[in-house]
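Proteins fold reproducibly. Next comes a concrete instance:

***
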Amino acid sequence: MKVKKAVFPVAGLGTRFLPATKSSPKEMLPLIDKPLVQYVVEEAVASGIKQILFVTGRGKRAIEDHFDISIELETHLEAKGKNKTLQAVREIADLLDIFYVRQKKALGLGHAILCAKDFVGNEPFAVLLGDDIIDSERPCLRQLLDTFDAYQGSVLALEKVPMENISSYGCVRAKAVSERIFEVEDMVEKPKREEAPSDMAIIGRYVLTPRIFGFLEQQEPGKGGEIQLTDAILKLSREEKVYGCLFEGLRHDCGDKLGFLKATVDMALKRKEFKKEFEEYLRQRLG
């Protein structure tokens, strides 16, 4: 069965970016000239996704407005003859079919995914986290979907990270199926360095079978009093095979201030209209 739906959990408070996120969602922080969340939505579209569900919370209305039609803005741009900008604005609303549901209590990522049960139905689906901006020739999600098509099992995006940083991630113990595909044998959420089963961290892209909902419904709160998606996927892996895909591409952790700054520089250097001038500016500043 082909994956056509994706879930975007965006109900988090974005406390690491306060006070910038006090009244504006973290997902709407601008990376050059697009909000973070738009990069991830565009990745989903480029991967073949037809419908997405935003799992939102209080204070996230700006996300809905961004992906909606803005008659006033479009009329203004048209009157000013700013056709290129007008086209860019209209394309946002036309990307794909978008739905919304509220996560009324902040009970963790697993609970956010459970909120999508009615939207997903009895189909496999993708999950994309807006903190991770992944720059790659072939979209990261497409790499996971190709893996799902080949093996017909849930797939996690994996990235090798320095062991001194492994406690910030869920990580896996897995056996190689091919150069970049692994069968997951165990998962640990934010382990101490000495307890980590490997240096392969789970990154914010997933393709899951609908059986995950049964485990999420029975899942007891884990670390931080939250329903952990990792715990439910581990239980799922005991019933059916779960795979990991060591994706090709450069990930920017935009949930971290330094990662956000690095992403801004890297993405700016890819833009032809100011690449040369920006490079010169950086050389001057770095002496």
Residues 140-151 form the longest helix (12 residues).
